[in-house]
UniProtKB/TrEMBL annotation:
Entries under Gene3D superfamilies matching the protein: Aspartate Aminotransferase, domain 1, Type I PLP-dependent aspartate aminotransferase-like (Major domain)
Protein name, entry field: Aminotransferase
Record's keyword terms, sorted: Aminotransferase, Pyridoxal phosphate, Transferase
Source organism superkingdom: Bacteria
Keyword Transferase: yes
GO molecular function terms attached to this record: pyridoxal phosphate binding; transaminase activity
Cofactor list: pyridoxal 5'-phosphate
Domain Aminotransferase class I/classII large: 21-326
EC number in record: 2.6.1.-
InterPro entries reported for this sequence: Aminotransferase_I/II_large (IPR004839), NHTrfase_class1_PyrdxlP-BS (IPR004838), PyrdxlP-dep_Trfase (IPR015424), PyrdxlP-dep_Trfase_major (IPR015421), PyrdxlP-dep_Trfase_small (IPR015422)
Protein family per UniProt: Belongs to the class-I pyridoxal-phosphate-dependent aminotransferase family.
Keyword flag Transferase: yes
Length: 338
């Protein structure tokens, strides 16, 4: 706890007991067959220490970047700890509400954190002047968890400043068709992009993500990364999930997800539920009067949604719903409780 918010709370704590899981944003219930085959095939190689070299090449090719711009990590989450350790002393600011691990990592590394708070009244749209001008390390999510808002690349670029590192957490961008507004394809001075493979491919248990940044930044992060932090299976998954076929499949999944998102949002609006902003990610943030009661009653009805009040700036009336294919049962249950 930071006194107000439990920054270490995550959706995985809210599932179980036979509940339908609308709390965790991992899209696939299990990794696809082709990926499981690749993972199974690498088990015989586990006697050797891991080598992320092929993963670096594959990720660089996938994004059109130089291999010197790539650092594979044990999930996007490890990247936040590396950034906090290597650069946290630079007067950090975190744009909230957002995923709490960057702030938790900064605090755990002993750094002071300022919060740049976006407002529900503005649809959680990014306002560059919300970020303190003297912040030397800025974290922002795109699209943002939990608001589901996708910020324009041009607005993000306005946050760039000499001597500042801007960290854009794109953990969910592969779930948005075409990956619009991504800062991943170019090396931009002072811009660090964090990506995750765990959500789209159902491999949260494997820990696979990476950082794209200038070579000097990558070198500083690598210097503080524990040795062999990316396991052989995680490196194999990075190669497999960066192939043109996998990227095409992820784009198809994103298209289907976008249709499911539209259906959920229109179902919620028909019920008169307030939906935050203009959702683009595979989850939706809603505000419901007496939301804590409704969330607990949803559990009684068999549905786990993710509480919102552990995200700085949100209170107990907010909760986040993961997008799944057919949500008519959930919408009917919610309707009964409003
Ligand atoms: C916005 C955001 N970034 C990063 C992560 C961490 O991803 P990974 O599983 O790759 O560590 C999460 C996990 O929920 C997340 O929601």
């Amino acid at each position: 706890m930071d006194g107000e918010y439990d920054l270490l709370h995550h959706g995985d704590r809210e599932v179980g007991d036979g509940l339908v899981d609308l709390a965790v944003n991992v899209r696939l219930p299990e990794p696809p067959e082709w990926l499981r085959r690749e993972l199974a095939a690498c088990l015989a190689d586990l006697a050797a220490y891991p080598d992320a070299g092929r993963a670096i090449e594959a990720i660089a090719a996938r994004h059109g970047r130089d291999p010197a711009d790539v650092l594979p990590t044990a999930g996007a989450a490890e990247a936040f700890t590396l950034l906090a350790t290597a650069f946290g002393a630079r007067n950090a600011a975190v744009v909230h509400p957002q995923f709490t691990e960057p702030e938790a990592a900064l605090r755990a590394a002993g750094h002071r954190v300022r919060r740049a708070q976006l407002s529900a009244a503005d649809g959680f749209v990014l306002k560059p002047d919300a970020v303190p001008a003297d912040a030397g390390l800025v974290f922002v999510g795109n699209p943002t968890n939990p608001t589901s808002v996708l910020h324009p690349a041009a607005t993000l670029r306005q946050l760039c400043a000499p001597g500042r590192l801007l960290v854009v957490d794109e953990a969910f961008l592969d779930a948005v068709p075409g990956e619009p507004e991504s800062l991943a394809p170019q090396r931009l001075p002072g811009v660090v992009v964090v990506r995750s493979l765990t959500k789209t491919w159902g491999i949260a248990g494997l820990r696979a993500g990476y950082v794209l940044a200038e070579p000097e930044v990558i070198a500083r992060l690598r210097a503080v990364q524990p040795p062999w932090s990316v396991s052989t299976p995680a490196a194999v998954a990075m190669v497999a999930c960066s192939s043109p076929r996998a990227v095409e499949e992820s784009s198809r999944l994103a298209g289907a997800g976008e249709r499911d998102l539209a259906a959920l949002v229109s179902g919620l609006r028909e019920l008169g539920v307030e939906v935050a902003g203009a959702p683009r990610a595979p989850f939706v943030l809603v505000r419901v009067p007496d939301g804590a009661r409704v969330r607990l009653a949803l559990r009684e009805a068999g549905y786990a949604v993710r509480r919102g009040d552990t995200f700085p700036g949100l209170d107990g009336d907010w909760f986040r719903i993961a997008v799944r294919h057919d949500m008519s049962g959930f919408l009917a249950a919610l309707c009964d409780l409003l």
